[in-house]
Design brief:
Blueprint: H1 2-14, H2 25-30, H3 35-58, H4 68-90, H5 92-98, H6 109-117, H7 124-154, E1 156-157, E2 160-161, H8 175-197, H9 218-223
Antiparallel strand pairs: 1-2
Helix pairs in contact: 1-7, 3-4, 3-6, 3-7, 4-5, 4-6, 7-8
Length: 224
Amino acid sequence: MKRALERLYNGIIKENPTFVLMLGMCPTLATTTSLMNGIGMGLTTTLVLVLSNVVIAALRNLIPNGVRVPAYIVIVATMVTIVQFLLEAYLPSINDALGIYIPLIVVNCIILGRAESYASKNPVIPSLFDGLGMGLGFTVALSLLGAFRELLGAGTVLGYRIIPENFSISIFVLAPGAFFVLACLVAAQNKIRAAKGKKPQEGCNGDCGGCTSRCGNPKEEVEA
């Protein structure tokens, strides 16, 4: 149980594929024009990631090392096809909104990266939670991007008017807006992580002059 929770935490926070590892940038920037699109793309990728991780982990001892990557692609492509059929049948609006980016999940570096680095070396259950954690981290990141871009660019969230139409900035639903919002979110996340890692040691009086404890003062790190 502890290992499963660790995989979830790593995927969502510590090793978030978008904000930390910077993987899967193509669908991240292209599909997050709205919160609903971000959620749809994130959950679709999560489902494919979980299914492919489970199958690859179960077959890890049967797949020859020399053809492992082609085998992973075949497995992932099968899962993507199944998920796309389900979307076409039950969520056609999401399928139409995401368009070509659903088939492109096959070559998403998040999925192939987890297959190669984790699922191919670990049992089924840990691989399942690894895929779930990475997928949820991807979903959270895309949802945040979609929410901010929709709010700033269209003045709405999930179709509900929040900002008057005259005050919305349409560039945020275009490609430049995607880069800008992503940069701001990554910068905010890095600032929070840096603040948590720079806690002063016990007994610190805040005067770094002449201090030899090297508790993580940014100025001392630069000088070093």
